[in-house]
Amino acid sequence: MVEVSMIVKNENGLHARPASLFSKAAAKYKSDIKVIKNGDHSKTCNPKSIISLLSLGIYKGDQLTISASGEDEEFAVKELQEFLEKGID
């Protein structure tokens, strides 16, 4: 399992457009991927589902932990981390 934590930089958080792009990026991978908001394991989602991702209500400044487990786990976490670092609005 590979895991990374980071702070959301998008000015408007992960609203519909960036959440859609994030979800599409996650869906490319075979690994099981999870996103945890602010370290609260009750606020966990499968980012391959945009509805699940949007249900977390992710705003600028929130801490997200991205974890992946599977054959392409390193690539999945790296791409999703880079997505959040870019701060796409």
From TrEMBL:
The keyword NAD does not apply. It is found in: Cytoplasm. Keywords: Cytoplasm, Kinase, Phosphotransferase system, Transferase. One of its GO terms (cellular component) is cytoplasm. InterPro entries: HPr, HPr-like, HPr-like_sf, PTS_HPr_His_P_site, PTS_HPr_Ser_P_site. The keyword Transmembrane helix does not apply. One of its GO terms (biological process) is phosphoenolpyruvate-dependent sugar phosphotransferase system. One of its GO terms (molecular function) is kinase activity. General (non sugar-specific) component of the phosphoenolpyruvate-dependent sugar phosphotransferase system (sugar PTS). This major carbohydrate active-transport system catalyzes the phosphorylation of incoming sugar substrates concomitantly with their translocation across the cell membrane. The phosphoryl group from phosphoenolpyruvate (PEP) is transferred to the phosphoryl carrier protein HPr by enzyme I. Phospho-HPr then transfers it to the PTS EIIA domain. This is Phosphocarrier protein HPr. It comes from Geosporobacter ferrireducens. The lineage of its organism: Bacteria, Bacillati, Bacillota, Clostridia, Peptostreptococcales.
